[in-house]
Amino acid sequence: MMYRMAYNRFTRRQFLGTAGATTTLGVAGCLGGSGGDNGETIRYLSDRGDSSDVVDDIIAEFEEEYDYTVEVTYTSRGTSTDEELSQMLAAGDPPDLVFDTSADAYRYQRDGDLAPVTEAVQDVGLPDPVNVDGDSYFAPTMVEPLMGWYRSDLYEENPTTFETWQSEAQRLSEEEDIDGFVVPTGGTNHADTFTTQHLWQNDVEIYGGPSDDIEVTIDQGDNRERAEEAYAWLQSMNEYAPNGSGWEWGDGTQALQQENAAALMSVGGLPILTIRENRPDLVENLAPTAYPIPDGNGQDEWWAYMEGHVVRNDGEATEGAQEFARFFSESDRFFDFVLSAPLFQWPPTEELMNDDRMSENEILAEHQDAVDLVRDNWDAFTTVLATGDEGAPNIVAADAYSNQLLGQSAEQMIVGGQSPAETVDWIAEELRGLQEE
Amino acid sequence: MSAVGTLESRLGELDEKRLLLVATFVPFTLFFVLVWGFPIGYALGMSLFEDPTGTAAFAGLANYADVVTDDLFVTALVNSVVYALSSTLLSLVLGLGLALVVNREIRGGHALRTMMIFPYLLPTLVVIFMWTFLLDPNVGAVNEFLLDNGVIDEPFAFFSSTTWAMPAVVVASVWKYGSFAFFILLARLQAIDPNLYERARVEGASTWQAFRDITVPQLRGAILIIILVRGIWMFNKFDIIYLATGGGPLDVTTTLPIMVYEMAFQGTPDFGGATALAGIMFLLLAVVAVVYFVAFKPEREVAT
Amino acid sequence: MIDLGGGAAGKYVSQHTQERIRRTAVVLTALLVAIFVSIPVYVMIAIAFQPSTTTFRGGTVSLLFDSFTLDNFVLLFTDTGTPRYLFNSLLVTASSTLLATALSVAAGYGLTRFEFRGKTMAARAVLFAYMFSPIVLAIPLYVIFFTLGLLDSYFALTMALTGISAPFGIWLMWQYFQTVPEALEESAWIRGAGRVRTLWDVVLPVARPGTIATAIFAFSVAWNDFTMARVVMSQDEMYTITVGASLFLDRASIGWSETMAAAVLMSLPPFAIALFLQNYLLQGFNVGGLE
Questions:
Q1: In C, residues 204-223, which contact B (CB 8 Å cutoff)?
Q2: Domain range summary for chain C, segments of one domain joined by +
Q3: Is A24 near chain C, with CB under 8 Å?
């Protein structure tokens, strides 16, 4: 449990137009003239410090071919990028290119801060999640689907359903002196994805309507009952879980690693990458799984982060950044980049999933069951952004994710002692509060 | 600057003297105006505007009203007081006990003194690394110890518990800042005339009586100052709480400084609200400072 | 710590026995405190110098030190921005230590030796500043530096850090110069030395312990700072070691072992001060306590 930037408290004024602030800050930047950028330097903000070797290689190749210099700032993965970016903007020193999620890309596009990267997307044949009036604003480089891991030596088989997970987790907690599950809560990415996915598992439609008229529907009609059921299930699973308030991905991984929990719903093979370093002996006892699902439901909405490049229009090397995004997508080293964190990062297209280099990777070969899980569920992958009607981009969901409201709703229930019904009321009110701003 | 005027008339003729005067007072004045006066004035000014870094519409005291009526404000105020009081009093008890011990010049007293000063000098971040690791439910040594000895049945997440998050932060704070009280009290103890104790012993006073009648009165002033000054510093502490819990779970460790940071830097910046809250903290400090100045007259020490 | 036998009983127990009980209590207290202080330090060191596979072997955390490695440090220097962070930390620490010490010595001397109206006010201003909350100061400084385009600069961080450390330094030197008798200076003047020369040759050498205490204090404030660097610096390449290391645990390739290795690096200067310069520091405490 460390250093949580992510306790975003939701305040009433929080969403006063980012656009306004950005303009002012831009002006201040001109006055200050920080840095000696001459327009030939592309400022690149990336949270892939773990993959810096490959990225630096691609940059070197790019610099050789084009008349640009790329100055890259690596931040750590996850929560820090947003804060980093807003501080860079405040310093009047916006980056030209940002490595970010599709949901964030859509938020920036709404605020009018992005330049299109149409060529890097449509010419290369990549998915196009942020397409506005025919222009693409987000060049995906990878997907990161949520995925769970359970102890195959303790669970006799993959419990799969809500019902079996509950009875098996109970059995383990009572007989094996280990918690059967992990229920992360609070303002963290881990808790937010976890809560959202479990609502989806019970077919809760949190939102409805087209992009320009998103409605919060979580407390309406059948959704209300289904949402309460999902929350109630989480509440009951919490009986067989450690106190996960404020837990980020790493905390859950440590619970699995130290054998305090026998199953963890996380993202891709992230836990495996850590456990391989610290407890190589434990890896063979861990098997991948989809998130638990009520008996009879199908895995038809599966949260997969999509991450890639966006080009800002307020930097000094916008064109260069567009060139670089395209160069990156087409680069020979692109695959090395994706595979720099195998099991956690996956290729952005189904076609690339079948590439030879996938089967040649040692770590992937050791976890063929995880590869199969990704391949079999490819069509169910969706982003939190695509939650309007027919998968239309949903700005409310993007904002809710950046405030981690769903994760906070679970904390309201599990730590704050609210009932599932009160929790549904709470989250519905908070989500509508986002819309009013 | 009337101060310089007075000085000049008194010391007038010597050019060198004037040079020294300028060399000593100009940096001092510049520093206080630029790094303290101006920013604080600026912040107080900002607190009167809606969106001060943007449209900057004059809002009077609206930001103050918003902050004070925010539910979190009362929570944060109470948390700040609880945190400041508990960490200060614990440090005091610990520091007093240890100062009495080390004052006895036991063997190893010097090593103990070195050991005590080390945590005080460590970066807060290092202290937080140590304590979050020690108290971690999954990898923490404290949990392992309690489990092995049957005190608890399953690992306990101190920083995730609404009951224990605050005590855990207080323990880490006392570990780091406990030696402040220790060193101040030790200095006072060593300044007590040993003849007083000798005379008491001759007169047949017990150890306890000597402590009560000689030691305690000599330490009273120091103790009050520790409570006041250390209390203010703990009230204002930001980094140690922010790094340990970020204010959670459910705001149980959100103090006023944490709230200021959240308003200013998380989500869309609300500098109007943040500076209004800073203004409120400024007023609170001013009140305590007046009490301090009136009760202790610390400036006497420099009034030659 | 104290003979808790209480007043009345004390009269009937011989002073010798009292002394023995007291001595035992004293040693016990010392022992407990020593354990309380050293366990976290030991844990940090054990994790930093063990391979992570040893630390986490078998699902319990092993702190027994049965294998030793420097790999965690190597990884810090090759795979993270640690060298750059350390450089930044050293640079701003050095510059703000210099600035704060020079300012404190100059102001301390002036405030001691020259009489002027409003001296009480000045003393109060210094004390008030020294009780102030860094985060409350950080917000306006952030906005001002941002307006001036100075965020992400060594200059801004140096000024901010000096802002926190100088008030105490001034207070300390102010008091320290009072222990330097004016007669010392006067006799130098009589021998024909100028004011500036006297200050340089006579006063400053005598005030050296105070100056060193001030410098140590300014050094600690700057080296330990998290708040100001977090607020003023927004680029990875400008981070100080405290801000940089606080983000390590978010990365997949960095775990507790490397994090504790970074903690060991950050602990080296404080350790050196505690070991070699503690007497100067204690002098600082005696004069007015320090933050």
A1: 220, 223
A2: 7-59, 71-288
A3: no
Å from C42 to nearest chain A CA?
A: 20
For this complex, say whether ipTM is above 0.90. Answer: no
Residues 269-288 of B with CB under 8 A from C: 271, 274-275, 278, 281-282, 285-286, 288
Candidates A49, A73, A258; nearest CB to C237: A73
Would you list the domain boundaries of chain B? 2-46, 65-302
**pLDDT tens for each residue of B246-300:** 887 888 999 999 999 888 877 666 888 999 999 999 888 888 888 888 887 776 6
- Nearest by CB to residue C271, choosing from B118, B139, B209, is B118
pLDDT at B267: 62
B20 touches C110 (CB < 8 A): yes
- Matching residue, tokens 């602990």: C267
Structural domain boundaries of chain A? 18-143+306-371, 145-302+382-436
Say if residues B243 and B125 touch (Cβ distance below 8 Å): yes
Write the pLDDT tens digit of every residue in C52-65.
Answer: 888 888 778 888 87
- What is the topology classification, in CATH, of domain C71-288? MetI-like fold (1.10.3720)
Q: How many CB atoms are located within 10 Å of the residue C265 CB?
A: 20
Equal CATH topology for A18-143+306-371 and A145-302+382-436: yes
Cis status, amide bond into A288, omega within 30 of 0: no
Structure tokens at A147: 């995925």
Name the CATH architecture for the domain at B65-302. Answer: Orthogonal Bundle (1.10)
CA distances, C201 to each of C172, C180, C192 (Å): 21, 13, 13
Q: Which of residues 75-94 of C touch B (CB under 8 A)?
A: none
pLDDT of residue B187: 80
Check if CATH label 3.40.190.10 holds for domain A145-302+382-436: yes
How high is the pLDDT of residue C288?
55
CATH of domain A18-143+306-371: 3.40.190.10
